[in-house]
Design goal:
Radius of gyration: 26 Å
Helix content: under 10%
Largest sheet: 16 strands, parallel
Oligomer: single chain
Number of strands: 53
Distance between the termini: 30 Å
Strand content: 35-45%
Shape: globular
Structural class: mainly beta
Number of helices: 2
Length: about 725
């Protein structure tokens, strides 16, 4: 986004649910020709079962599903009906050489049971059996080849069913004499880790800022990580592609007596291009009582505790175009001043000073009351469903990734008491470093590892496939993935609980039909108990060079949560032009029960958002139509003038949105007219709250806000036209 100078002013429904089906992950034989193992001898066994497809003969109740026995969480369990025999079976996804089974029993354990192997889910062999099982944690050394591993209980130690915290299968896949990809390791050269005794912290932070301050389309990527403790006299200024974060389990574990600052001196006081940076998991005591965070898109402020105020405008109160806060506590007032729009989720604020066009809050303690359009506050008491972004932290001297638990009807921060969620050791992650290939990345996922992308730019010549449930894919320092040869950068299977976070996907010069695809076409499994989350995942077409993509992001999986994304067809930089960085569609949602919290989508040649799934919800939407449309004919949509920024399919019966805005700035041909910013079927279940459209300086005009409802934008006055409720 680049706002022109004229803006200077300080129930869930079951309708449409597709029937659930059991996703079976097909086997895959992976060649690792490009991978040089750390140890050429036979590798240690890997955990193969975690997150895999699992079935059972019975479940005691909905709270003890079979999947809980392979989720890596010792606090969740599978339990069966109170009868014999009962079984639980895991599909490893590919044939494996199994060498060890670990059973973590709850109090209701088995005294008699068998461990059985199968390569085809039909013919079974017994690998181990006992009539004197001791319960507790049992480690069984076994031997055999299997894709399917089944535990069959034949005698219970209690009157209750069989109950397992974890059913773990260890072994090796693929060429059993070949290399295994090691988990863990160092975090690479672009991750800088500090502790309070580190000399020259300020000088090093300043050095990175000097390099990155104006490097909007450069290749530098950095993560500045601070171990728990107190840091005095710090002012960490953040430039492009720089992330700063504390390494404690809670923000207050890492305290700055100082500031984390974003300003706009590099751009003459204009903050509308302060993109691609982040601050997370820190407590700040600002030097002058107020921290400055003057950003625009793709600059999340997450899990922060500001022991003072927060100023969202640049020095001098120049232009600023919108941003995002989540899971943060600001003890003092938040002053947006010149920020045109902003979204704050699941946080706590001491006050909020003003609004320009569109200030939206969900689950925010201290948020201003609902009052759109004057002042323009859209306020929801809670957020329907949320799960905070995974983050790296130190448990003593060991790196782990904490995956916060899902919350429903959330309000306030997730870390006020004991953080709820799961800790995953770094040893269970493939630490991806610049130069890694898609082939190796995919092999790591198939092996059972999560992915931690260190800061860098990664070219991939094949799709990264995330087809194992509960896989975490976490990027540090705006790690950037560029698909070569027109491939899709990332695809997610129709599986539970995948977490994608902290990545920038940059389109390559050869057109990709899709850049990020969550779920295969026709995905139908019910993921409501454990949804996929897409958080701080940004998509860019052009700007850093010519790039093309027909559709940037496709959400096929039901129940997906898209929590803060900026999907941007570039309006400035290199490789920019109506056909040069052609990208017809921003995001297409085909899945049911999808929730978007903080949806930023801009400048696409046709629809920015197409929503085809049932029961979709969006809380906050920010959009600009493409600046560079050459004429009216180029954006004509049949008999409709212009493609809506946000289009709900005519077939949809239930959809709801709150706090949505669309702006136009047709500077190539200011005579272009848009019939409306929003288009949706007129049905009782399709509802919108607090909509606006704006013509920036009269460069093009909207005739209506949604369908034929709402007044046209007026002349050159840059005044929003609003609709409080539709229909």
């Amino acid at each position: 986004m680049y706002a022109p100078p004229v803006l200077r002013r300080p129930a869930r429904s079951s309708t449409g649910r597709r029937g659930g089906v059991l996703a079976v992950v097909a086997g895959l034989v992976i060649s690792l020709l490009a991978f040089v193992p750390a140890t050429p001898a036979s590798a240690a066994p890997s955990l193969l079962s975690q997150g895999r497809t699992v079935t059972s003969s019975s479940e005691e109740n909905a709270g003890t599903p079979a999947a809980s026995a392979v989720d890596g969480n010792d606090g969740s369990r599978w339990s069966s009906a109170f009868s014999d025999p009962q079984w639980i079976k895991v599909d490893l996804g590919a044939s494996a050489s199994v060498s060890q089974i670990v059973l973590k029993w709850e109090a209701a354990y088995a005294t008699g049971y068998r461990i059985e192997f199968s390569t085809d889910d039909s013919t079974w062999t017994t690998a181990y059996s006992t009539t004197g099982g001791p319960g507790g944690t049992e480690t069984l050394n076994v031997s055999g080849t299997a894709r399917y591993v089944r535990l069959t209980g034949t005698a219970r130690a209690t009157p209750y069913g069989y109950s397992l915290w974890e059913f773990q299968v260890f072994g090796t896949t693929g060429d059993q004499g070949g290399p295994q990809i090691p988990g863990g390791g160092d975090l690479g050269p672009n991750v800088l880790v500090f502790d309070p005794s580190t000399p020259g912290i300020q000088a090093k932070v300043d050095e990175i800022f000097k390099q990155q301050e104006s490097a909007q389309f450069g290749n530098g990527r950095y993560a500045l990580l601070f171990k728990p403790g107190t840091y005095n006299n710090i002012n960490a200024q953040l430039g492009f592609y720089t992330s700063i974060a504390g390494l404690g389990l809670k923000p207050d574990d890492t305290t700055f007596n100082g500031d984390v600052t974003v300003d706009a001196g590099w751009f003459n006081g204009n903050a509308t291009q302060n993109f691609w940076r982040s601050a997370e998991n820190l407590a700040l005591n600002p030097v002058n009582g107020t921290d400055r965070w003057a950003v625009s898109q793709a600059a999340p402020f997450r899990r922060m505790h500001v022991k003072g105020g927060l100023n969202l405008a640049p020095d001098g109160y120049g232009w600023a175009s919108g941003g995002y806060i989540a899971d943060s506590k600001i003890d003092g007032q938040v002053g947006p001043y010149s920020q045109q729009q902003w979204y704050t989720r699941d946080s706590s604020v001491g006050g909020w000073t003003n609004g320009v066009w569109n200030m939206t809050f969900s689950g925010v303690e201290g948020a201003p009351a609902q009052s759109f359009p004057d002042p323009p506050y859209t306020t929801l008491d809670t957020t329907p469903v949320s799960r905070e972004k995974p983050f790296l932290y130190l448990d003593g001297s060991e790196y782990k990734v904490f995956v916060p638990a899902k919350r429903t009807n959330a309000r306030g921060v997730s870390w006020a008491g004991t953080p709820q969620g799961e800790s995953i050791p770094l040893s269970q992650f493939y630490v991806v470093k610049p130069g890694a290939t898609a082939q190796t990345i995919n092999a790591a996922v198939q092996q059972g590892l999560h992915l931690l992308f260190t800061p860098g730019v990664y070219h991939v010549d094949q799709t990264i496939d995330i087809d194992r449930a509960n896989t975490v894919v976490l990027g540090l320092g705006l790690a950037t993935i560029i698909p070569d040869n027109g491939v899709t950068a990332i695809k997610v299977g129709d599986v539970d609980g995948v977490k994608l976070a902290g990545l920038l996907i940059d389109a390559g010069p050869q057109n990709s039909s899709v850049l990020l695809q969550v779920g295969p076409d026709g995905a139908s499994a019910d993921h409501s108990a454990n949804p996929t989350t897409v958080q701080d995942v940004f998509v860019r077409i052009g700007g850093a060079g010519a790039g093309k993509a027909t559709t940037s992001m496709v959400i096929n999986n039901d129940d997906t949560i898209v929590d803060h994304t900026w999907i941007w067809r570039a309006d400035h930089g290199d490789g920019v032009g109506w056909e040069t960085n052609r990208a017809d569609y921003g995001i297409r949602v085909d899945g049911d029960d999808v929730l978007a919290t903080g949806l930023f989508v801009e400048h696409f040649n046709k629809y920015d958002v197409q929503w085809n799934g049932e029961n979709g919800r969006t809380i906050f939407f920010q959009n600009e139509k493409a600046y560079d449309a050459p004429n009216q004919a180029a954006v004509q949509n049949g008999t409709i003038k212009g493609y809506a920024a946000y289009k709900v399919a005519d077939s949809v019966d239930n959809h709801e949105g709150w706090g949505l805005g669309s702006y136009c700035y047709f500077n190539v041909d200011p005579t272009i007219r848009q019939d409306h910013g929003f288009e949706a079927p007129v049905k009782p279940g399709v509802k919108f709250h607090d909509l606006l459209v704006v013509s920036l300086g009269g460069q093009g005009q909207y005739e209506h806000v949604i369908n034929s409802t709402g007044s046209p934008t007026s002349g050159t006055s840059t005044v929003p036209s609003t609709v409080v409720s539709f229909p």
